[in-house]
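Changelog note: in this version the structure field was regenerated for every chain. One regenerated record is shown below for reference.
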Amino acid sequence: MSLEKYKGIIPAFYACYDDEGNVSVEGTKQLVEFLIEKGVSGLYVGGSSGECIYLTVEERKKTLEAVMEVAKGRITIIAHVACNNTKESCELAHHAESLGVDAIATIPPIYFKLPERAIAKYWNDISAAAPNTDYIIYNIPQLAGVSLTLSLFDEMLKNPKVIGVKNSSMPIQDIQMFKRQAKLNNREIVVFNGPDEQFVGGRLIGADGGIGGTYGVMPELFVKLNSLIEAGDFENAGKLQDDINEVIYTMCSTKGNMYATAKAALKKRAGLQLGGVRAPLLNLAEDDDVIVDKVATLIETAVKTWVG
């Protein structure tokens, strides 16, 4: 089984809303086209950047359907399908498979502290609802409150549909650890770098590519960064990572949620109408406009410097 289609730059797709705060099919399609034109390898739909825990099951289906209408057959699509209960997660998994996604992904269930056997059953039940589709574990302990331990990973590697880990834990060595553990189980997997600020470090230690929440606002910069790494130009890769990180730090300095900043910056960059964020996430304050302008300027300057 070839895992090549999972390598490269895969933006974590943003939830797109209309003026009334409802999911926007048109905005979703426009964002997909914008990202494809910038050269991304795939899209990760319905995860943290897609505000998944604040959308209904039907809204998540609607978003994925719009994405697939534009992207199917053109790039790799990974659908995050986890809800905080097994039934709805399985419903989304089955729906995603019916649309022809390349893979599904899930975080662990949150709030209740479950034993590893319960988490494994939750994941395997979801995988069984999409039996012909690859499965990716999303490890984000700082938000989920649950870490992908090696013992849990060993159990999940018994499932032949498990082909990778989206690793958003901050210790960069976790990428290497999961790769090593898969080899001990005679399995080949892909590991995606999660923290955007350490993309270079993640790739150098063994990540096959990346899935990130800030890729969507500056996709061409991450595409270029990945190409520099593949070319062995680590000096310039470090410099571009620094420019990217300045954008990220600036994005995080608004009073609103970072994804609201990203969507506002995309409006300035590309005229995309993607709305704000879903409450209880905070939308931008009036005085955040200055910061959004700075974000857009920083990105455009970096694009001119690095991409041309």
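Spot check on this record: Residues 234-251 form the longest helix (18 residues). The chain has a mean pLDDT of 97.
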